[in-house]
Amino acid sequence: MAENQAGEKVRIDETLPSELESVDAAEETVVGIATEAGFPEDELHRIGMAVREAMVNAVVHGNRYSARKKVRLRVLEGPGRIEITIGDEGEGFEMETVPDPLSEENLLRHSGRGLLLIQAFMDAVDVRKTGTVGTEITMVKRLSASGG
User: Fold this and answer.
1) What's the DSSP call for residue 133?
2) Residue 110 lies inside a defined structural domain of this protein
3) Over the stretch 109-118, which tens digit does the pLDDT of each residue have?
4) What residues contact 98, with CB distance under 8 A and at least 6 apart?
5) pTM of the full predicted structure?
6) Domains in the chain: how many in total?
């Protein structure tokens, strides 16, 4: 594994098919890396849920299950942190256009809470359109100084 100047190692950089099986595979892979990095059990659960939500968004909402479209999963491990990037090949969106899931008119909707959960579970989240096609979400989780 190569290290960059910040001491980060690329642990995984792969392309997955747009199918729900990829959601499970990505979650298992990332939680395994986070386990090796020393994250405690409660943080592993949060990381797994964030990855699951981001992967479902990529497969279902971004790529719309299209067999022609792929999901990219990249994990960097650095000193005391893990960075996960998930990208789709869909139409893309801007965060400002996502309805607030906590507003009264959206409380009973069946979808729309994934990004809120991701932001609650991770230390930093960046969502951006990747040019003319696709959306990429980068999530960072840091090990606490106390180790948990």
Assistant:
1) S
2) yes
3) 555 567 888 9
4) 112, 115
5) 0.84
6) 1
C-beta separation of 65 from 55 below 8 A: no
Structural domain that includes position 58: 9-142
- Which is it for strands 9-17 and 70-78: parallel, antiparallel or unpaired? antiparallel
Q: Using the 8-state DSSP alphabet, how is residue 93 labeled?
A: -
> Helix H segments across the chain?
20-36, 41-56, 114-121
- What CATH number should be reported for the domain holding residue 61? 3.30.565.10
Per-residue pLDDT tens for 9-34?
Answer: 999 999 999 999 999 999 999 999 99
Is-contact 121 51, C-beta < 8 A? Answer: no
- How many CA atoms are closer than 13 Å to the CA of 74, on its beta-carbon side? 11
The secondary structure of 56-92, three-state, reads HHHHHHHCCCCCCCEEEEEEEEECCEEEEEEECCCCC
